[in-house]
Amino acid sequence: MAFSNGAESLLSPPRDEEHLVLDRTPSSYNPLLTFNLAKGEKKHYQQQYADMYFARLAQLKPAVEQIAGDAWEDFEVAGETVSKVERVLDVRQGQLCWVVGTIYMEMPLKPNILDDITKDHWIVAPPPRVKFISPSGGDQVMLEDESGRLRLTGSFLPSILLVTGCIVAVLGTENANGDFEVLDLKVPDLPRQPERWERDDGEAALNSKAVKQERTQAGKIAVVSGLGISGDAGDALTLDMLMEYLLGESTSPKDQEQAARISRLIIAGNSLASASPIPGREEAAAKKSGHRKYGYDSSAYNAAPTGHLDVLLSTLLPSIPITLLPGESDPTQTTLPQQPIHPAMFSHSRAYMTLPEQEETGWFDSVTNPWEGDVDGWRLLGTGGQPVDDVFKYVEGDDRLEMMEAMLRWRLCAPTAPDTLFSYPFQDGDPFVIADCPHVYFVGNQPRFDTTVVEGPTGQSVRMIAVPKFRQTGELVLLDAETLEAEVVRFEVFGGD
Amino acid sequence: MAQDYTEWLAINVLNDQQLVSYRSLSRALKVHSNLAKQMLFDFHRKQNAKKPGTVHATYLITGTKRKATPITDGTQSQEHGEDTVMQSSPLLPSSSAAKPEEEDVDTILLQTVMLVKEEHLEKAQVTFESITGMHIYSLQANGLGDIQALTECNRKIAVDYASEDPLEIWKQYGTIQNPNVKRRTQRRQPPPPAPAPAKDAAPKAKLVSTTSKPAVLKKEGSKDSQDSKPASKPTSAKATPEPSKKPPMNKRQGSDIFKSFAKGKTKAQAAQESQESVVSTPKAAPEDEPMGGFSDEDEADEVEAAVVEDDSTVVNGKSKKDREAELQAMMNQEDEVMEDAAEDSPEIAEPDADEGAIDKPDSQAADEPKETVQVENGRIRGRRRVMRKKTVKDEDGYLVTKEEAAWESFSEDEPAPKKIKVPPTTSMNKPAAAAAGKKSAKPGQGNIMSFFSKK
Predict the structure, then answer these.
(1) What are phi and psi of B370, to 5 degrees?
(2) Tally of CA atoms within 13 A in the half-sphere of B241 that contains its CB
(3) Is B60 close to A250, i.e. CB distance below 8 A?
(4) Is pTM, for the whole model, over 0.80?
């Protein structure tokens, strides 16, 4: 165990030295409103979900066709050249062809409306499943487009990651059973990646302002998720340690200098442990009404966690700007895209947010989940974890990074919406399609920290980060905004043994 | 200054047996946090030199730990290793086995910040490979039983020093300053932090803070807090709760109680009743509906809340006077429609439709003045005449629907406020009706009880 220089400077009586007050590195911030929905009455739920699939197919078909066309142009099997087929139903038996469509996974263990009916008739409902994969191969993979559906088979399939909703091009032929035997499969792969500062420079150029060449050295971006604040004591101490570290009050002067380089904090979901969940049918019937005072039942609603979160945020805000994404257990809707947590929840931190009618972004930005934006010039794409957790249920294995990479290559940040992931019925287009390749893709509330870099066909490179739950691991991820490298700071309390 | 902190620490740690962290010390003596840490160290050493074991400390160690719990299976080096670059294969085989060849190369810098009690300090230091910083976190007189008790220090700081403006005062504590902070001044102050987070205290604090406005309400402040207690008893036996609807309703209810009552506790009581009945009937709707219904209404409510918050001072002042005048007029009138209010409200499926039955006392408020229009904040708002339908029970027991003119306040910005202003006006009118009802129906004791027992 080695002590660094100056590590023990605070283990000494007070001397007449000057204690510096540090200044934080500024953060350049320019969020996008890709996932913001219209408010109030302008949001409709009358439309069908099928439109989302059609829109998705229309948006991604050109890209897949290009890649597939390039790859399979001169492909030959047993002297037969491959031809492109426009619609899924145009596939003829015995003809070698390739076609583009949407994947649909037929899995008997997926959540089914019939399970709800079972609950009505039988007392015990089937337990929720960790994975939807049926053990005996009851799962089927189908390719679908506006014309129809085609069942896919072949030994090639089990080797690839597929979930409902991804747009692919398959090469193969129809066999005697009417199933399409797959020989090869292509995905859209990563989209075009903007340059760093592209959007900021573009906006400045449009406004005829001089494009800034001089930019200060960017600092670090702190990402944390799964704070899991509930009313009970639990891990409040690690939260306090996190807060003091970010404020630059705890640790030695040298570490404080490091902390002063953190320019922004992004909280990626699940800040609250439970958002006063709406009780299920049985629970609501069984529970007798609690004592109602001031018009609400105090035993059903506990305001302490929100208050605690608010105090935590308002302590951090004077020093560091915060972007808050909602998560599965946060007080906003359960359907994706989750809308920003309302300022009404933050009575103290509200002062740092902008009013609804103001155009500029606030110091404290409560944003949607998923979220896209520019921080320090880099394009960031992040979610609170629900899409990846849902993809996890479809595939074998536990490698979250693999699933995240697959989602990037499918160009979908939530491929299983609206099949098993609740979503808003978009009509005009699917915003879950990743239009610009991000530089950083972070996903919150994952079981472990993990990170890697993914490369694309035209030189794109994406840093993927799986952010662990703070409540369980006590880990804070620091992303260096100049080099895009990740490091971790872990807060813990010594167990004593 | 050297004497101050020794004295202060002696009093707080030894005499009062309190838990003092470096943050509490820095706030109390208004010094830099690093200086506070040094003060704690000095005090700890001196006291233990005099009498060993009098003062116990907890330490905060920062550094890199040994390879006990690696992030990846890489070597624990200080420099960043090469990150693997995933091959650009379109789809990866979905194997659950770890990929050993990549993990050797990955190294992620992992720093640990660890809080440790004095007695475990040696053991903790051993787990670290290199330590970049160590200082005293807190002092206490006896041993620290549960280390989680340290959260109490920060909680106390949040409460005791809540009035300090962070942007001005925190510089002296050594917090990292940010010159780009944007903060706007609020018209309405956030509710003061209640030291004992009793849930009664929270709505009471809100009620108390709203009384800081018009002077008329001040004398009612203490009265209402007592009124709410007996009011809550009859309401306890009422409909099933709806947690997600409570918070926005509660806030509006709090302010409406103030706005609407002039005297008499029945108004507050009846206000609660009416809110409960309005709230209970949507629950009768199928279970699946509340999901969509809540989000829309709550959203609309909250949009209104944001709007109301900014302009509340002005709106409150104007309409409060009007409503007070209304209530006075209602006091002096006979009331024959109190029972109708009770019967009609359960029939109503949604709060929006309430305006039919419940707004009938509106017609009795004959001294609504003229139609006024004001331009404020770019919005046109004021009072205007609107035709409303009133359903009234005749002496024969027939329901008669009449169209009558009524006054309502409007704002031209969004249609949402019009929709939302209806529940406040309905709850405002119900207590008025109930109050008038009580006055006139005093001889008929049975009528009053039937009104309440229906809920």
Answers:
(1) -80, 175
(2) 28
(3) yes
(4) no
Question: How far B15 CA lies from chain A's nearest CA (Å)?
Answer: 22
Taking only the tens place, the pLDDT of each residue in A101-116 is: 999 988 887 877 777 7
More confident residue, A168 or B311: A168
Note whether B132 contacts A255, CB cutoff 8 Å: yes
* DSSP codes, A274-320: ---PPPPHHHHHHSPP--EETTEETTT---HHHHHHHHHHHHHTTTS
d(CA A305, CA A207): 44
Q: Which two tokens stand for residue B179?
A: 């010159």
pLDDT of residue A464: 95
User: Phi then psi for B52, rounded to 5 degrees?
Assistant: -65, 140
Q: What is the chain B residue with the closest CA to A300?
A: B243
Of A39, A276, A454, the CB nearest to B303: A39
Strand A461-468: give its sheet, edge to edge: A29-31, A371-375, A378-383, A440-446, A461-468, A450-455, B85-86
**Three-state DSSP state, A490:** strand
| Closest Cβ opposite residue B90 in set A45, A186, A363 | A186
Verify whether the Cβ–Cβ distance A7 to B132 is below 8 Å: yes
Write down the pLDDT at residue A409: 92
- At B424, the amino acid letter reads P
A22 is written with which tokens? 């540090």
Q: For position B375, what pLDDT does the model report?
A: 63
ipTM of the complex: 0.84
Closest residue to A1, CB basis, from B32, B125, B183: B125
Higher pLDDT, A361 or A448: A448
Contacts of A284 in chain B (CB under 8 A): 240, 287
Number of residues assigned to chain B: 455
Instruction: Name the phi and psi angles at B126, rounded to 5.
Output: -65, -30
Percent residues over pLDDT 90 in chain B: 2
Whether the per-residue pLDDT at B202 is higher than 60: the answer is no
**Amino acid identity for residue B351 in this structure:** P
**pLDDT at residue A412 greater than cutoff 70:** yes
Chain A partners within 8 Å of B125 (Cβ): 1
**Among A489, A13, A474, A16, which Cα is nearest to B136's?**
A13
Smallest CA–CA distance from A303 into chain B, residue: B199
Of B156, B138, B158, whose CA–CA distance to B147 is shortest?
B138
The number of angstroms, rounded, from the C-alpha of B392 to the middle of its chain's C-alpha atoms is 40
Instruction: Note every long-range contact of A454-457, with CB atoms under 8 Å and residues 24 or more positions apart, other chains counting.
Output: A454/A190, A454/A405, A454/A408, A454/B86, A455/B85, A455/B86, A455/B87, A455/B88, A456/A189, A456/A190, A456/A193, A456/B88, A457/A189, A457/A190, A457/B88
Mutate which of B64, B92, B130 to disrupt the A interface (most A C-beta within 10 Å)? B92
- CA-closest candidate to residue B344, choices B234, B232, B451: B451
Output the six-digit token pair for B222.
């203490």
Say yes or no for a CB contact (<8 Å) between A355 and B306.
yes
Return the number of CB contacts < 8 Å for A and B: 362
Structure token pair of residue A187 = 């995905």
Token digits of residue A478:
């620091």
d(CA B268, nearest CA chain A) in Å? 10
pLDDT at A131 over 50: yes
DSSP-derived secondary structure letter, B371: -
Please give, rounded to a whole number of angstroms, the shortest distance from the CA of A62 to a CA of chain B.
Answer: 17
Exposure of B261 by Cβ count < 10 A (0-12 exposed, 13-18 middle, 19+ buried)? Answer: buried
**Cα-Cα end-to-end distance for chain A:** 19
Say if CB A348 and CB A407 are below 8 A apart.
no
Tell me the nearest-neighbour CA distance from A462 into chain B, angstroms. Answer: 10
**Structure token digits, residue A396:** 């074998």
Q: Higher confidence at residue A225 or residue B232?
A: A225
